[in-house]
């Protein structure tokens, strides 16, 4: 401690400010730590946040704690109406990250003359928390997407249709939670505008919006993820461009491609074609037995694709298949909503 007098009223007020903000910073960090631990199961985050709390606790000197008994706080217990508007874990992460950052800035300023070491510590942790907030939000978004992938067995891929937005909304209303959009003809400007419209629809129905191939449009439209083929941009490069908030799926139909996808951090795999399909006329069907062998020990979600429809889903389920990607069955349907409802019931074993 430098240039301080514990009997001086001004110094006591400064100690009280430091004491209050050390409490605020540590409380906010504890909120982040518990969400990282129980909500995200992110052990690396937990360790880092716990270290921050311990460092601040070690520097929470007795003289600061004693100051709260000397100067009456007239604003104790004040709340703000914005606090009641936090409805999601992401809002709680952001608000408590902000609380920590603000508290550390106050500590940094008011401890500069009295406790230079604490001022320096507060500054260093504050800058770390800026990055931590982004990482926690990204990880949280990724976990939410993973939850939808694991919890839903129907994955719908678009095809070119004049009334595509209408079809997509119908199947979203039916309960479909995963949409992959494939681009056909048109300019990049057209593709982006269409992607944004589909993204907004998916967001309205709390569904994932995945772009096929085009990482640039996935970024520009704030899609939830990208699906890559074996001839597309490699997964590691796509991850660097997209960050960790997005999910990345891969098409794979042999042991090597599946192994590489897993090694590179793929979130899900599309495997096929199971049967002959008009969408991929040049590709020979893999067949049920081969797919069963390829997926025997697969520990991430995988979706069977290729020639799949209401007429063969039950048969595939009897062979251990659980998740399915459909195109023609719903894109060419006269009543996509009812067909989607029927298939979802079929997948959930409802009659």
Give the overall shape.
elongated
Q: What summary fits the major beta sheet?
A: 8 strands, parallel, barrel
Fourth CATH level, the homologous superfamily of the largest domain: Aldolase class I
Kindly report the CATH topology of the largest domain.
TIM Barrel
Distance between the termini: 74 Å
What is the radius of gyration computed over CA atoms, rounded to a whole number of angstroms? Answer: 27 Å
Order of helices and strands: HHHHHEHEHEHEHEHEHEHEHH
Number of strands: 8
* Helix count from the secondary structure assignment: 14
Query: How many domains is the backbone divided into?
Result: 2
CATH architectural type of the largest domain: Alpha-Beta Barrel
Question: What do you see in this structure?
Answer:
- By secondary structure, the protein is α/β, with parallel strands linked by helices.
- The chain contains 14 helices and eight strands.
- The chain is elongated, with a radius of gyration of 27 Å.
- Helix 2 (43-58) runs antiparallel to helix 5 (116-151), helix 4 packs antiparallel against helix 5 and helix 6 (164-174) runs parallel beside helix 7 (188-204).
- The protein folds into two domains: 9-144, Up-down Bundle (Ferritin); 152-347, TIM Barrel.
- It has an eight-stranded parallel beta barrel, surrounded by five helices.
- Helix content is 54%, strand content 9%.
- The model has no long low-confidence stretch (mean pLDDT 91).
